[in-house]
Amino acid sequence: MVTRSLLEIPPAPPLVKGNGGDSAITAVTELLAALELKPADIPDLDPDPSPFCLLVPREFVALMQPGNPHDPLLRQILPLRSEERRVAGYVTDPVNDTAALHAPGLLHKYNGRALLLTTAACALHCRYCFRRHLQPATLGMSTRHHALAIAQIAQDSSLTEVILSGGEPLLLDDAQLEILLAQLAAIPHLRRVRIHTRLPTLLPTRITPQLCAMLSNSRLTPALVLHVNHAQELGSAAAAALQKLRHAGIAVFNQSVLLRGVNDDCAVLAQLSERLFECGAVPYYLHQLDPVAGAAHFQVSDVTARQLLERLRAQLPGYLVPRLVREIPGAAAKYPL
Ligand SMILES: *Cc1c(COP(=O)(O)O)cnc(C)c1O
Ligand code: SF4
User: Fold this and answer.
1) Residue 268 and residue 270: Cα distance in Å, rounded?
2) Residue 12 within any structural domain of the chain
3) Host H or E run for residue 66
4) Within 13 Å of residue 219, how many CA atoms lie on the same side as its CB?
5) Whose CA is nearest to atom 6 of ligand 2?
6) Residues with CB under 6 A from ligand 2
7) What range defines the domain where residue 56 resides?
8) pLDDT tens track for 251-300
9) Structural domain tally of the chain?
10) pTM of the model
């Protein structure tokens, strides 16, 4: 039964402590201690990053290798001083999200699909995030934004799919999601709902039977797109969460970002694809890094990226090779490299 109004959805919590539940680490010293590392092990470490603070759930830290400053999971969330370096071409809004706003929190770039920023909160802070500089207010997030976005979607009959993104859409609770899904399902021209999420690997317990049932019972065909960059992120708890989604009949895909020092290696990418499929997810996109200020140290050249993909194609069945793409502002789709 859906009785609460969308207007009651609370504003996005600020990008700070607690978004990962009570289990998130936000202090660099605590992270190092948990991993048996000393500051001297990471010369470039930023001990007090702000305003894009350290945020990582303990469940994710538990998947890292203690004593390894080069751990591929650690590298994704480790704040470094080199983030403050200014690099030509690296900007605060690299994919021009602000120009694609059709209603508060509603991005419409591609034919038939609109992307709804459900919340600004994330369960962890990826240092390479292309939205790391976009404040909720810039994107029009407020208590009323869902209602205005829904009205815009209802009015645009060219749309067949809505993507719930963020931030992290599964940080909304079931009651909030149910309202949102019901509102979308009531729009006759919509056929699919898609969720872009990192939670199945970060907080696998969020994937409850209730959540799976809510998605599979919707009139809209559900799809879920994960964000996993390395096979090490897919531990047994994540595998179990993904199995629940699969058993509920929900199509599960994965998008990764190509990151120097994390997954810029053919064997690592091959293992990721194999492990994803074992867990019930199909590799979808491998994104070239969006040039966001603070992330230049993650960049992999296009030449290297293409070589990696060519070698991957020579090793794996075609359905385990992700599409290498880059987002080009103004293009009609993610651009294949
Ligand atoms: C990436 C993206 C999509 C989804 O693109 P697909 O190619 O369908 O996965 C939709 N809307 C926006 C604004 C996006 O950035
Ligand atoms: S990449 Fe996704 S999960 Fe990571 S901080 Fe950005 S929005 Fe959040």
Assistant:
1) 5
2) no
3) none
4) 13
5) 129
6) 122, 125-126, 129, 131, 166-168, 198, 227
7) 24-84
8) 999 999 999 999 999 999 999 999 999 999 999 999 999 999 999 999 99
9) 2
10) 0.92
